[in-house]
Amino acid sequence: MARGLVVSKLHVNAQSNEILKGIDLQVEAGRVHALMGPNGSGKSTLAFALAGHPGYEVTEGSATLDGEDLLALSPDKRAKAGLFLSFQYPAAIPGVSVANFLRTARQSVKPGDLPPAKFRQLVFEQLDLLGIETSFLGRYVNDGFSGGEKKRLEMLQLAVLEPKYAILDETDSGLDVDALRAVGDSLRTLRAGNGAETGFLIITHYPRILQYIEADVVHIMMDGRLVKTGDAQLAQRIEAEGYDGIREEVAASGAA
Description:
- It is built from 8 helices and 12 strands.
- By secondary structure, the chain is of the alpha/beta class.
- The strands form 3 sheets. It has a 6-stranded mixed sheet, with helices on both faces. Strands 2-1-4-5 form a 4-stranded antiparallel sheet. It has a two-stranded antiparallel ribbon with strand order 7-8.
- A hairpin with a 2-residue loop joins strand 4 (56-65) and strand 5.
- It is globular.
C-alpha cells in the first residue's frame, strides 16, 4: 500500500477549462514539500481539487492518502482521513468563538477521542507553544482579525487537529514581515513538536516562508504542469532570479 499523499497523472478542469494537465506528486509523512510557481500556474487548483471543492472537476488521474482513494471521499471524509487545508483567504464566522470552533472541528475529525478536560489541556498547551494569548479563544473566528491573526489561527487549527497531511495554500499571502515571521516561527515550532510526523505541502508564489521552514523538496509548477523538482537550493534560485530562467529551460526542453 502506497503511503503518503500520492497524486498520479491528475487532470483538473475549472469552469470547463483544463487547469492541471497531468500532475505527479508524492508527499511523505514527516517531510516538507514546497510547491512554487507564478500566479495562474494552477497551484491553488491542486489544493482545492485535493480538498474536494465542487468547483474543480477531476477528469483524469488519481489521488490517494495512505493508500485510500481520496477522490472517492466527500470533503468532510477527506478531513477525517487526515487531510488539512489552510486557505489563502480564510473566511470570517461572526458569532462563533474560536474555542467553540476548535472543539467542534476536533470532534468532527476525531470524534470522542479527547474528553473535555483533555481537549482544554491540548488547546492551552498549543496556545503556549505558539505564543498566542488565551483571549484569542473568546474572539469570533476571523471576525476583525488582521491577516497575521488569521494565519496564526490556522496554525492553531493545525496544531489542534493533528492531521496526517497539511496543504498550506499561500499562507504567506498578504503578510508583512513581522506577521510572516510569526507564522513561520509557528510552523517551525509545530514541526518540532506534534507536527513532526505531518507531511506538509506548502504552496507559495514567493519563497519567503521557506526562510523559516526549510523544504525537503521543491517543485515548480507552470501552466498546470510540474516542470522542475529539486532541493531547497531551487527555492533560493527563484529568490535570486525569479521564474524567467526556469521558463527558458522549459521552453528549450519543449516540456511546455
